[in-house]
Amino acid sequence: MTEPARVQQVLSGNTSAFTYFVEAYQDMAITIAYRVCGNMQDAEDVVQDSFVKAYRNLHAFRGESKFSSWLYRIVYNTATSFTHAKMWQSDADLSKADENPSDFDTERQLETAETAGLVNDTLRRMPPGEALLLTLYYLDDNPVKEIAKITGLNETNVKVKLFRARKLFRELLPKELITASKLIADETFTR
Amino acid sequence: MKHLPDNNRNEEEAIRALLKKSRVAAPENLQHRIIGQVENVRALTPQQSPLEKTGTNVLADFKSIFAFMYIALIAAGASFYFSQGSESLKSPSFVFIVVGIASLFSLFWLITRLDSFLREKYRRKRKS
Q1: Average pLDDT of the segment spanning B19-46
Q2: How confident is the model at residue B6, as a pLDDT?
Q3: Which residues of B touch A138 (CB under 8 A)?
Q4: E strands, B6-97, where?
Q5: Quick one: average pLDDT of B115-124?
Q6: I need a surface site. Which of A47, A86, B44, B69 has the fewest CB within 10 A?
Q7: Would you state the pLDDT for residue A175?
Q8: Is residue B28 part of a domain?
Q9: B2 touches chain A (CB under 8 A)
Q10: What is the mean pLDDT of residues A149-170?
Q11: Within a domain: B107
């Protein structure tokens, strides 16, 4: 069944049809909220609030964009107003970003924590807006056009910020992890 | 990404591979919390009764009220004509009755419109 058909089902009073949207998008929604809020407790509240908002305003969804983009826009707006976060401050959290990765005991981290933990740590040390752009672009494979719709930025701005975010991510990422991931990427690319 | 040079493309893929691991999994109870709240919202949203006026129908009110007014005017005219003849239709008392009936029905129509307006305003306020 297509998503517009499911939307129609929910609108006609079948609340259980809404479960599909929750199941399909809750992980990405909480990832977005977590990038903005910085902690799971707030992220959960934001996601719950966002889904309820989406349900209330489902009649306003016209199907011109993807349902996911529409929902992520609600999550993004709810999270930013919840935290009053300044998403696009270029120097935001630079004190955090300036932490030198070499200060961390990288070897120990690699041994004890999983790669996911390190990547999440790196993203946490980045300004929330830039971490969010990387998440939307690489994790959920959203094109620039959809990211512009979600964040309310224009496409050029998204591209510029994405470039900066990528650069900062590379700088902050523990070097061992870059090498390891490049090797994996090389392997997959040459195959 | 086809236009990117190989090393750039490699780097893109490396970042993608790393970020694919950064997805945050929603806790198991979150879905139940969301659906529970959605059910509550649905239960608390007042269901529109079929008898409830859904909007203001200006023309319907206008037609029904003024149709009765013209029936009353024709009845008054007929009673004057048959009891006192055609000359009575030009008398001041008949004109007074016509103006009275027209004013009464117009006032009634005005009250109906005001009532519809206030109902609609209240409905919108309750909805928001």
Answers
A1: 87
A2: 59
A3: 15-16, 19-20
A4: none
A5: 84
A6: B44
A7: 72
A8: yes
A9: no
A10: 92
A11: yes
Helix (H) or strand (E) holding A76: helix A67-83
B121: closest CA among A146, A33, B113? B113
Chain B residue with CA closest to A183: the answer is B14
Q: Is the pLDDT of residue A104 over 70?
A: no
CA distances from A159 to A126, A134, A164, B18, B31 (A): 17, 11, 9, 20, 34
Predicted confidence (pLDDT) per residue in A33-42, tens digit: 999 988 899 9
Residues A94, A48 share a domain: no
User: Is residue B70 in some structural domain?
Assistant: yes
The tens digit of pLDDT for each residue in A3-21 reads 888 888 888 888 888 999 9
Q: Could you list the residue range(s) of the whole structural domain that residue A32 is in?
A: 1-85
B11 with A30: Cβ contact below 8 A: no
Number of domains chain A is built from: 2
Alpha-carbon gap, residue B53 to B120, rounded angstroms? 9
- A184/A108 same-domain check: yes
Please report where in the chains the tokens 């300044």 appear, as a residue.
A86
Residues from chain A contacting residue B15 (CB–CB below 8 Å): 134, 138, 166, 169-170, 181
N- to C-terminal Cα separation, chain B? 46
| Same domain membership, residue B40 and residue B67 | no
Q: Which helix (H) or strand (E) holds A183?
A: helix A175-190
Q: What is the CATH number for A186?
A: 1.10.10.10
Tell me which residues of chain B, numbers 33 to 72, contact chain A at a CB-CB cutoff of 8 Å: 33-35, 37-39, 41-42
Q: Which domain holds residue B26?
A: 6-44
Residues B39 and B64 in one domain: no
Rounded to two decimals, what is the model's pTM? 0.64
Judge whether B51 lies within some domain: no
Q: Are A134 and B19 an interchain contact pair (Cβ–Cβ within 8 Å)? A: yes
Confidence of residue B100 (pLDDT cuts 50, 70, 90): very high
Q: How far is CA B51 from CA A124, B54, B80, B122, in A?
A: 56, 9, 41, 17
Please tell me the predicted confidence (pLDDT) of residue A165. 92
Number of structural domains found in chain B? 2
